[in-house]
Design a protein that fits this description.
Number of strands: 31
Number of helices: 9
Largest sheet: 9 strands, mixed
Strand order of the largest sheet: 2-1-3-4-11-10-9-6-7
Strand content: 25-35%
Distance between the termini: 66 Å
Shape: elongated
Length: 569
């Protein structure tokens, strides 16, 4: 029954490939109680036995704490505390279990496992939180916060079910990755506000998973809840990988809505169940609403078979997907290819640490999580919480300091799905440079074709009063501004001014940059630098026919005709 259920879920997501079978492993189910005893324990034990029989792991069930010795625990990949209550282990048994988990073993806590071992501080850290209270059994809405973890990937964004909903003494969020939380407005008796109910975290060299679900016997006959149990056991046993690092401060770029996204090139993505699934290509769905500078980008992805996709960062706005290839960097998603063109590589530039990658990677048909950490010109790639690549850009024609992000639809035969694309901006500082040929608007300026330039063109003939604008360059936090203009023309002139502090703090208004210059033809170059804020792409010196206008930083105005401060806007 479970295998059929999981197959149906994969089909609903648009990706029909089966996940390869796990290697054989062993699980100990411990259900000793020294306090309240749940009458659902027998149903829970049988459910785990059924899951083991269907998924290739053996199950040993016991209520004998004597099983907690170093020698005996060494035979298991995971230990399930199934609605245990009270003080169930003595000091020697506690020490053996702590050594087992910290040495690489797995812990799964179900429901009343949080009502256990109140006098053992390590156990609170392991479980994540202690039980405090609960209202009457009732229906509530469970919200999925992580749909890549093997315990929750089969669920929709929300799940309405009946159970006994625990309140906890402390909120575990700062030290765990919350997988599910409760909507306290959907039931009576919740007192936490922010109310995690299922979570995971690393515990030294081991792994911990806990769910507050599972009070009722009926829960264990529910295929969806059995899927939660199975995924938690697989994670704890180390046969399925997940990013269980605590996560706060991220802003959704995609979690069901494609507002702010644009398709470049052929093909695209279907959008259903808060999941983007590729169709056709070769194209790129890119986030046009914002350029990013220093940031952590996280997203969940899943391939079928030997498919191909990637995540692009640091590229300029363009309706041509080739622009992202030529000007940005691709973190590859590909089940098999040459080392510098397979999963985790910075495509064509640096291969991933293959040993670390292979240890962290879930196979085709299963979800994985990327974190792309961009700081200055450094790009670090994390797969399911483990660092697998560390790349620094040294190409003066490219820059990671400012640009857009996007996901690739590679072709009709390459199926990939994405979920939960989110970003945390990190701030940062240093100087950022805007290349003169990357202007976004102009007036009275002749455009010159120039293949190496961003977008294949640059400023051409510039006359007195002409201007070019540079939108999308954020000067928030900038402490200084400099513009450098040069020309081969002997009579070309230009001047720049720096903004007053009040102008830098003023609300944004789009205005042009104006310059006064002689228009003697020559070879012109421009480079403008702001220090302390975020910026655009690295400067490249390219030919033009006249001295160029000065740059405009984001929505602020630089006037080159006098040294007066910027006008307040």
């Amino acid at each position: 029954m479970l295998n059929t259920f999981l197959s149906l879920v994969l089909t609903a997501a648009g990706l029909t490939a089966a996940v390869p079978a796990d290697p054989a492993y062993d699980v100990l189910v411990f259900s000793k109680t020294a306090g309240f005893r749940h009458d659902s324990i027998p149903a829970g034990v049988q459910a785990v036995r059924d899951l083991g029989a269907a998924n290739g792991f053996t199950v040993t069930a016991t209520e004998d704490a004597g099983a907690f010795t170093a020698a005996n625990l060494a035979g298991y990949e995971a230990v399930v505390f199934l609605s245990t209550t009270g003080d169930v282990l003595d000091d020697t048994q506690q020490a053996a279990f702590q050594a087992y988990v910290d040495g690489g073993g797995g812990y799964v806590g179900v429901h009343a496992a949080a009502d256990t071992e109140y006098g053992w501080p390590y156990y609170e850290k392991l479980a994540g939180a202690y039980f405090k209270s609960h209202p009457a059994i009732q229906q509530a809405t469970v919200r999925a916060e992580d749909r890549a973890h093997p315990a929750t990937a089969h669920l929709g964004p929300t799940w309405t079910r009946t159970d006994e909903w625990y309140n906890y003494r402390t909120n575990p969020r700062p030290s765990v990755r919350v997988l599910q939380s409760l909507d306290e407005g959907s039931y009576s008796g919740g007192d936490m506000g922010d109310h995690p109910i299922t979570w995971c975290h690393a515990q030294s060299q081991g792994r911990s998973f806990y769910t507050g679900l599972g009070h009722t016997a009926e829960s264990y006959a529910d295929p969806a809840f059995r899927g939660v149990l199975l995924g938690g056991i697989r994670y704890a046993a180390g046969v399925a990988q997940a990013d269980c690092r605590p996560e706060t401060g991220y802003t959704p770029l995609y979690n069901g809505s494609t507002s702010g996204w644009s398709q470049a090139g052929p093909g695209g993505f279907t959008n259903a169940d808060a999941t983007l699934t590729s169709q056709g290509g070769m194209g790129l769905l890119w986030y046009n609403a914002q350029e990013l500078g220093s940031y952590s980008l996280k997203l969940d992805w899943k391939l079928t078979g030997d498919s191909n996709s990637g995540v692009f960062v640091g590229f300029p706005a363009s309706a041509d997907p080739q622009s992202a290839v030529d000007n940005g960097y691709e973190v590859q998603i590909d089940a098999s290819d040459s080392p510098d063109r397979t999963t985790g590589s910075v495509y064509g530039f640096k291969a991933a640490d293959q040993a670390a990658r292979d240890a962290a990677l879930n196979p085709p048909g299963a979800w994985n999580t990327y974190e792309l950490l961009v700081e200055g010109e450094r790009l670090r790639v994390y797969l399911n919480g483990r660092q697998i690549n560390d790349f620094t850009n040294t190409d003066p024609r490219r820059s990671l300091r400012q640009g857009h992000v996007g996901i690739q639809n590679h072709g009709a035969s390459d199926q990939v799905a994405f979920r939960d694309i989110r970003v945390k901006e990190l701030g940062g500082g240093g100087s950022v440079t805007v290349e003169g040929e990357s202007y976004t608007s102009g007036s009275g300026v002749e455009v010159a074709s120039h293949g190496p330039a961003s977008g294949g063109r640059t400023l051409g003939y510039v006359d007195n009063g002409d201007w070019a604008g540079y939108a999308g360059v954020d000067t928030a936090g900038a402490r200084s501004f400099a513009a450098r203009v040069s020309s081969g023309g002997v009579r070309a002139t230009s001047s720049t001014s720096t903004p007053s502090p009040s102008a830098r703090r003023a609300p944004a208004r789009r205005r042009p940059t104006r310059c006064t210059s002689s228009t003697t033809p020559g070879t012109a170059h421009r480079r403008s630098t702001a220090t302390g804020g975020t910026g655009s792409r690295a400067a490249t010196r390219l030919p033009a026919t006249s001295a160029p206008t000065c740059t405009r930083r984001s929505a602020r105005t630089t006037r080159a005709t006098s040294p007066a401060p910027w006008p307040s806007t």
